[in-house]
Amino acid sequence: MSKLKIGFYSLYETDVKDSYVGTLLVTDSYGIPLEFKCTHSVKATAIQKALYGERLQPYIGIELCGIPLLKSITNSPDFLFVNENYLLTIRQKATTPVILINRTDKENKTNAEEYAKTGKILITHEYNTFDPVELQYHPDFSKDNKSTLEDINSVSANFDLIEPFERMKKSVEILGKTDSKFK
Questions:
Q1: N or C: which end of the chain has fewer CB within 10 A?
Q2: In this structure, is residue 145 part of a structural domain?
Q3: How does pLDDT run across 91-112, given as a tens digit for each residue?
Q4: Range of the domain at 25
Q5: Which residues are registered as beta bridge partners of 105?
Q6: How does DSSP classify residue 28?
């Protein structure tokens, strides 16, 4: 487990309307950063907005930011967490398992069997060090669940698996204030 590399990918909207920055953070199994990459701000043109419609943000998030970032890193993650449902689609072009992760209710008493019917997996710890999280895999890659779940359970005891998204968002905010390429 100690050699695991965990990826976190997200797309953040900047202060400029319809402008986005893709971020990819790879950590060790304790949440210590190994590599961080982000795109410059990607702003949709009026024609792109009209042509892509509701598919614009997924297109930017996957094709223009996500895939290029995954190809650019030197520390390839064993699995990649995303925080938006539409980003699960990156799995179709990625060689690593992609998992949607979200916080869930601290008081969630649902048993694992009932939870599984939703297509999601609940991760909790008896010591309640960190809030429970729910995982969801891309439906076309059901084997990802079996190959990653033990490792995810293990690392989730080491650090809050949602917190790296907060670090990445803060990094984008700092970059936006200091460099016009990220506005």
A1: N
A2: yes
A3: 999 999 999 999 886 555 555 5
A4: 6-172
A5: none
A6: -
